[in-house]
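stage 2 :: seqdesign
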């Protein structure tokens, strides 16, 4: 699969079936951040959630020798959500 198709697939997933199943990504990542914060007793932001979920996909890719296409697609999706959420958290204002 070519890179443009991977990105298209990721876009379809984060704006289609997953959003339909789990609701608004921002609200979902906020909910996850609150739960992780409570569990860790350390503040976690929604963009932290996006980064950590991306790292989960990277860890899975490492275990599969980079051969699991769904993990590549999902990682792109998580990063796109993180980029969107970062605007509301004022992350990377100097970039």
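stage 2 :: out
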């Amino acid at each position: 699969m070519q890179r443009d198709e991977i990105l298209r697939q990721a876009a379809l997933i984060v704006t289609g079936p997953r959003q339909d199943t789990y609701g608004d990504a921002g609200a979902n990542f906020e909910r996850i951040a609150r739960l992780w914060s409570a569990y860790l007793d350390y503040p976690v932001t929604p963009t932290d959630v996006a980064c950590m979920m991306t790292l989960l996909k990277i860890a899975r890719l490492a275990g599969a020798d980079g051969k699991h296409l769904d993990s590549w697609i999902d990682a792109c999706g998580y990063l796109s959500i993180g980029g969107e959420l970062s605007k509301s958290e004022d992350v990377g204002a100097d970039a």
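stage 3 :: structure notes
- The two ends are 31 Å apart (CA to CA).
- The chain is about 80% helix and 0% strand.
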